Amino acid sequence: MVALSAGVYMLTGYLGSGKTTLLQKLLAYLQSQDGRVVVLMNEMGDEDIDGEQIQGFGFPVKKLLDGCICCSIRGELTEGLKDILASFEPDHILIETTGVADPVDVVDALTHPELYDRLELKGIISVVDASRFRSLISRFQSSSTLVKTIRNQVKYADLLLLNKIDLVTPDVLEKVKAKLLELNPHAPIHQTIQSDMDLRELLNIKRAAERSAAIQARDKAGTPVQKSIGRMSTLDKVKRSLGFSAGQPSLYNSIETFSYHFTGPVDADKFEDFLWDLPKNVYRAKGYVLFKGREELISFQHTENQVHLFPFENFGPKMVAVFIGEGLDREKIIADLEACY
Ligand SMILES: Nc1nc2c(ncn2[C@@H]2O[C@H](COP(=O)(O)OP(=O)(O)OP(=O)(O)O)[C@@H](O)[C@H]2O)c(=O)[nH]1
């Protein structure tokens, strides 16, 4: 039987913005709905503070403590998700990230070759603390890394909760909204107090790029499936509304991913060169491959300045490559890869 993929909702947002408050409301709502739900919570410290707050809803909770799933314990996120899939076969997984997690890096973990086909990212929901947002993204008051992370939490969101509006004046609220719109003109903004919003709407979150990916997949039946984790550009939206194809992913202002399933072993040297020569807009590539003349499966990892290839003991994973980047020229990448056979 083919396992169905689990829908993943990622709750992100800076420390104390209202993520757990939202999660509690979501779980209360989901109690009355069908479907198996599992929560994955991550906390930087080794103390489980937030987890205590969501006991009692009757859903399994997996906790990843003492590190951030976007960086120091990213491997544990992959293992944790594999465990969840094997133990619970959930319909939905709700991930609450730490307040300092960069959603781009969490999505990177979700695209691990062993998980890629079994998870469907439904959406990134970002909670913004209206009362602190402007000072947090001020370079004078925050480190540049923090500013980048907080901006990414907004930039890559599919839905924004502008929370704690009870703590700001109308004037400040307008300024925060203007900044959110500037960073992310695509995600709907819901102004909330105590993260209170229509949860059906939240669960029906739409990823604009998903619609275009579905159309691409239909147009190119039989070619590798492309999933985009970003949004359609304004130009593409206009084109789509006029009935034109949105065209190449390079028109998107977004991070996108696609997978490629190897059809046989490749030449080791050529493949290593291929990885080193990947264009700059491929931020990440990873997967498992077989080399001609060698028995064992090879795990490969590519980042902008690193290529790692190492034998992988467990022969379980499929021979697949996953690519993550922006404006990817999928055909060219695949053609270069296929020259390695
Ligand atoms: N005044 C006010 N307080 C709020 C609002 N939403 C949440 N809070 C409070 O803000 C505090 C932090 O909320 P949490 O939901 O724990 O925030 P969080 O994002 O999960 O925090 P971390 O897990 O530490 O990142 C709690 O005391 C909430 O009750 C709001 O809209 N207005």
From TrEMBL:
SUPFAM superfamilies: Hypothetical protein YjiA, C-terminal domain, P-loop containing nucleoside triphosphate hydrolases
Keyword Hydrolase: yes
UniProt catalytic activity: GTP + H2O = GDP + phosphate + H(+)
GO molecular function terms attached to this record: hydrolase activity; nucleotide binding
This protein's record includes keyword Chloroplast: no
GO annotation, cellular component aspect: cytoplasm
InterPro entries with a match to the protein in the record: CobW-likC_sf, CobW-like_C, CobW/HypB/UreG_nucleotide-bd, P-loop_NTPase, Zinc-reg_GTPase_activator
Family as reported in the entry's similarity comment: Belongs to the SIMIBI class G3E GTPase family. ZNG1 subfamily.
Protein name: GTPase
Species this protein is from: Brevibacillus aydinogluensis
